[in-house]
Amino acid sequence: MQRERLKLEGEEILSTLRRIQLQLECAQSAFEDVTDESLIDSYIYEIIALQKKYEYFLRAAKKMGLTNGVQRRAI
């Protein structure tokens, strides 16, 4: 029972990391395309927030020994 719960939790963490990676890619792409100062600021804050979120879940994955295939994102 405990193993099953840990396995599900690990899968959820890895899924969250993949989702954040996609969100980061979208935000970075959008950042490169905008010219409005307000939007530039908005995307900068979004990218920073997503990077922090990614780092949090990456630490959680490392604690569970799930770092196989997980990369640290370049800032």
From TrEMBL:
Highest taxon listed in the record's lineage: Bacteria
InterPro entries assigned to the protein according to its UniProt record, in alphabetical order: DUF2508 (IPR019644)
This protein's name: DUF2508 domain-containing protein
Organism: Anaerotignum faecicola
